[in-house]
């Protein structure tokens, strides 16, 4: 995963950014990213209730483990492995939380706003995502 990511990042110009979905998932991936690229990335977390997670099981592309048992296993792994990393990023003020229980239009607005604020911080004036 990191090798594919590194190749993609190396192809970008210095004025381009990238949004990486589902990465990093744990402290080791986050530390490796920081060491490799010399920066602490901004993380966007779409945080939703377990009820909403259950509703989403039927609305997305199916995975082999898209069933109640698979969802419980992934949620347990998330709590054990990913939550500690998210807490560390939050302590560094590098975590933005989006309300995943909001309606889709509101979530998209919140995501765009969070990305816009981060690009402003990194690159200064940027008109692309208002």
UniProtKB/TrEMBL annotation:
**Organism from which the protein derives:** Hirondellea gigas
Q: What is this protein called?
A: Adenylate kinase isoenzyme 1-like
Classification from the root reads: Eukaryota, Metazoa, Ecdysozoa, Arthropoda, Crustacea
InterPro entries (UniProt xref): Adenylat/UMP-CMP_kin, P-loop_NTPase
Q: Which family does it belong to?
A: Belongs to the adenylate kinase family.
Gene Ontology terms describing biological process? nucleobase-containing compound metabolic process
Molecular function via GO: ATP binding; nucleobase-containing compound kinase activity
Known PANTHER family for this protein?
A: NUCLEOTIDE KINASE
- Provide the alphabetized UniProt keywords: Kinase, Nucleotide-binding, Transferase
